[in-house]
Amino acid sequence: MKSLAQKSLPYWCAFDIVGKEEEIARLEAEAAQPHFWLDQAASSIAMRNLNRLKETVGLWRRLERETGDLLELARLSAPEVSARDELASHVEEAEKRLRELEFQLLLGGKYQERDAILAIHAGAGGTESQDWTEMLLRMYLRWTERRGYRTEVLDVTPGEEAGIKSVTLEVTGLYAYGYLRAEKGVHRLVRLSPFDAAHARHTSFALVEAWPQAEGDVEVIINPEDLRLDVFRASGAGGQNVQKNSTAVRVTHLPTGLVVSCQDERSLARNRETALKILRARLMEIELEKKAEEQAHLKGEHVTAGWGNQIRSYVLHPYKMVKDHRTGHETSNVSAVLDGDLDELIQSYLRSRMGEKT
């Protein structure tokens, strides 16, 4: 327990907890001024930053209190065996949280702490891939639940027979993008098909994308003249119209050709707001990729990214295994992974790319 307390000391300096508390006090004082709320965009960014700072400081202060309580309990004279076992369990849990906080320090980068936009798209394979996309959605929802993140489905397109063709989520929580960027790429599933009368083995693909939430960054300012807005009736499974009014929105960014559609809300204004939120995140990701390509060019490396890059395989037949092809990390506990136990896979990849800052 003393070792645990000593190990945490360097990270207090690295995370600059005292400095963060001073920044919290400054932001709270600013927020108390009437003029602070006149610029809603700036105040919204400041409040998100304040919430992140409070969450980070809260985690460390809570660990500090728990460590102090454990040391105090350990100082009691000759605790019983059952008490020692209970203390050991608490210490193990505290060490786990310290390792997690240490890992967050190693993430680095300008955008790692931000909320994330996560999108999943079915690949070739029709109903098989659409069902696989829905399985991945469930997996990520379980993972976010484990981490205490909040999620909101921004847009979803149902499959024609089963599953979903595509879905876009907003994931809110500290380091949401820092972790989810590890999931970008093609995910492959091998299993006996529940949709095949012969129960044959099928391979399905789905593409996962992740972008940091745009927060008023200069590089993602959108000129309204660069947008084309189309409205249409929302459609349900099988393509039938589900609304009589045109509330679904399709936004085209003319300079880049990016197209974002949203039909998940009944309000035209709400769908437009959501589509623009996704568009801003995608535009910022393009800027990040440009910077990464420039850095790679200076290093003499060739960066490839796209649909053809399979990052992970989930095999349910003829054996059970999940393997990340980028790191070689694998596990035979496929059901646990599909139930949201992704931390080892995510962290093994991020540790392998620790030098990257985006």
Describe the structure in your own words.
Helix 1 packs parallel to helix 4. Mean pLDDT is 81; it is low at 238-244 and 297-306. With 358 residues, the protein is an alpha+beta fold. The strands form two sheets. The chain has an eight-stranded mixed β-sheet. Strands 6-7-8 form a three-stranded antiparallel β-sheet, with helices on one face. It has two domains: 2-107, Release factor (Methane Monooxygenase Hydroxylase, Chain G, domain 1); 108-358, Alpha-Beta Plaits. A hairpin with an 8-residue loop joins strand 4 (185-192) and strand 5. The radius of gyration is 23 Å and the shape is globular. The protein has helices spanning 2-15, 17-31, 40-74, 81-107, 127-147, 176-180, 268-299, 334-338, 343-352; strands at 116-122, 150-158, 164-172, 185-192, 201-212, 227-232, 248-253, 258-262, 310-315, 321-324, 330-331. The two termini are 36 Å apart. It is built from nine helices and eleven strands.
